[in-house]
Amino acid sequence: MDIADQIKTIEEELTRLNVTLIAVSKTKSNEEILEAYHAGQRAFGENMVQELVEKQEALPKDIEWHLVGHLQSNKVKYIAPFVALIHSVDSLKLLKEIDKQAKKNNRIVDCLLQIHIAVEDTKFGLDHIELIELLRSEEFAHISNVRIRGLMGIATNTSNPKEIREEFRELKSLFDGIKVSFFKDAVYFDTLSMGMSSDYKIAIEQGSTMVRLGSTIFGSR
Ligand SMILES: *Cc1c(COP(=O)(O)O)cnc(C)c1O
């Protein structure tokens, strides 16, 4: 199947399930992205700041750009003017920098807090204790131009579906707990970004509201 067919097929499936599709276009050309765009896709995800900025400049302005990969504080300024959602906030330091750059641009920037759910410690993200500490901190209370929309997690890269299911289940239960404890009246706290090409079906079964699909749409990298 080509990119347009793939977008249409997956979008139809996800719409029925009320799940948002982020088409992860890292390493893919502008032509390939436009193919998805012309099939109706508007939300795209990248994991490198420079690539994200170059594509944003070159491609249609109604594309909603998501940063899904690790973000260094010193690069926030390049994406703060336009980014739709940062999926990968993993420290208070980074959150404060996003807040600062959001203010400079007179924007509210939507973010997800990335939670470490995989067994591999090469993956980024906050553990449960760090998450609670961040949300309870004095400094967090002073952040005004960032809106925390929810959580994101990347499961272990394994062929064992039981393990993946367990990790997603844990993330969903953390999401529900955090919502009740810290975001009770915040209707905007509604996003649980979990699931990639290899595991998105399990993620949806466990309550994902947003999946990040690269190779399923664009082919292997
Ligand atoms: C690359 C990437 C994806 C998409 O991966 P696929 O396996 O190609 O679907 C999703 N999330 C993050 C954070 C990524 O870096």
UniProtKB/TrEMBL annotation:
<dbReference type="Pfam" id="PF01168">
    <property type="entry name" value="Ala_racemase_N"/>
</dbReference>
<dbReference type="InterPro" id="IPR029066">
    <property type="entry name" value="PLP-binding_barrel"/>
</dbReference>
<dbReference type="GO" id="GO:0030170">
    <property type="term" value="F:pyridoxal phosphate binding"/>
</dbReference>
<feature type="modified residue" description="N6-(pyridoxal phosphate)lysine">
    <location>
        <position position="26"/>
    </location>
</feature>
<dbReference type="InterPro" id="IPR011078">
    <property type="entry name" value="PyrdxlP_homeostasis"/>
</dbReference>
<comment type="function">
    <text>Pyridoxal 5'-phosphate (PLP)-binding protein, which is involved in PLP homeostasis.</text>
</comment>
<dbReference type="InterPro" id="IPR001608">
    <property type="entry name" value="Ala_racemase_N"/>
</dbReference>
<keyword id="KW-0663">Pyridoxal phosphate</keyword>
<feature type="domain" description="Alanine racemase N-terminal">
    <location>
        <begin position="3"/>
        <end position="220"/>
    </location>
</feature>
<comment type="similarity">
    <text>Belongs to the pyridoxal phosphate-binding protein YggS/PROSC family.</text>
</comment>
<protein>
    <recommendedName>
        <fullName>Pyridoxal phosphate homeostasis protein</fullName>
    </recommendedName>
</protein>
